[in-house]
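Moderator note: this is an archived Q&A kept for reference. The question asked for a predicted structure of one protein chain; the sequence and the answer are reproduced below.
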Amino acid sequence: MQKRASSHTLLPLSIRKWGVMLFIALMAGHLVVVHGRTETLWHLWRHSYYYASLSYSSLIALILLWYIEWVSRCLHKKYRGTGNYMRWIMQQLKYGVLLTVLIEIVMATALFAWKGYWIWETAFFRKLFGPIVMFIIMVNLGFLSYFFQDDQQMKRLIRYRWLAPRSLTGTGDDSESEEKDPLILYVSDKQCWSIGKKGTHWMWAQSMELSEKQLCPHTYFRGHRCWMIHRKAIVELVALKRNHLEVKTNLECPIRLMVSRRRIPAFMRWLERELPDSPTG
């Protein structure tokens, strides 16, 4: 039901996004047309050349906005949850700013050539290039801030939505259930151990390799050769240096649950495969 309901919000969100981008493109196109001109707005509105120039400039601005949004969305998909914000910013600068400036120059050159002018003979670089670059930088900062905030919201969702501390406590004598359905498996001194929801440590009879094959892959994830974790046990993800993640739980575990850079993409796909409204299974 949740998936069906969310699908109905995709279209309005898309329309709203394009509406905002179209409004910004029109405003940017208007500022480009009136930049450096002495005529009043009333005078410009009465002549057709204003609307022709506005349409060209706004179309170019809309293309640039769409491209920057696409770049920002792709980088967010690639770097979210990894904690590698510096590389994220550098890639945004490279593809979102520098390449966008190059695209703008190419489109402006083509537009002036269509009008019969060579771009170096116009006032493009003297009057318009600086404000256009500032516009591109501001748009990139806006999208970068938005997706950074979305990345932080994803981390809070992991912390507060899946498992509250009270979910770790059980009722009655459920030691048998703890042994069969561990929340954490880990290897210490060449022996496999399990941790139940009450925090009890049990000697686990099977190897980590055999446990990985037998336990449900939607519920358990093997983050390293020496540990495996249940979805319910995850409380928080902490981004570390060198692009590593540390998985935090409410259970006392003798080893640190570290996810390497190579395993992070698979780990994040596993986390996002199912987001229940309340802790289940």
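Archived answer notes: The first helix runs from residue 2 to 7.
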